[in-house]
């Protein structure tokens, strides 16, 4: 029995060696050199053809694209809002007496508003006519690029500009929050000369805690002259309009849940796909100690 097993094992080893290389037929892994050559040639031609088709398809697709404007825009009907500073998880929490707890908010606003300095705006952008769209059409195939942009001067934020009060009210428990509308190429956010505007309020349980709100520019308006937006490449110096909200006498030592939303006669304020479309919610807490 042991001898039979040894013979069987030896035969299997010989068969395996012969499969790897057969010296009689000069076959490697069951194929001759010419057979391997034909297979490799087939796959080489096959994959080169696939690569060529892919490159040709990408080239044809790129010919149809506009480098200044997306061919298709798959987006929500309502642009979103965002705040600055936004803190962690859209929470702005600090203590008035602890300078370090609010200093990073002030630094964030300083950095964010640096491009809005009047000197920068005068150098890069135009003084535009308010309450009307700044439309800059192309002339057929002739591109009207780069397109100009309207000035949004930092001083328009008044008490929330960081110029009147370099601490943006954080030291005194009267913080400023900046609100920006997300950019959407080609959007016209108002009809009949009516600009969209921002309003903020507290959720039902916090309505008696939010206190007086002050808006800059007046009425929290995104003026029509900053629209339409033509894209980063076509409108290189575009300055996004802002609205500042100052919380003049918010209740201290308690959480205040705030929601700000865009109001417009041309933008839907409700969306079945996103309940936060056109609005932003955040928590504000100012501790006295």
Automatic annotation (TrEMBL):
It comes from the Eukaryota. The chain crosses the membrane at residues 38-65. Pfam families: Na_K-ATPase. It is a single-pass type II membrane protein. The keyword Membrane applies. Keywords: Cell membrane, Disulfide bond, Glycoprotein, Ion transport, Membrane, Potassium, Potassium transport, Signal-anchor, Sodium, Sodium transport, Sodium/potassium transport, Transmembrane, Transmembrane helix, Transport. It is found in: Cell membrane; Membrane. Its main location: membrane. One of its GO terms (biological process) is potassium ion import across plasma membrane. GO terms for cellular component: sodium:potassium-exchanging ATPase complex. Signal peptide: none annotated. Gene3D superfamilies: 1.20.5.170, Na, k-atpase alpha subunit. GO terms for molecular function: ATPase activator activity. This is the non-catalytic component of the active enzyme, which catalyzes the hydrolysis of ATP coupled with the exchange of Na(+) and K(+) ions across the plasma membrane. Belongs to the X(+)/potassium ATPases subunit beta family. This is Sodium/potassium-transporting ATPase subunit beta. It comes from Scleropages formosus.
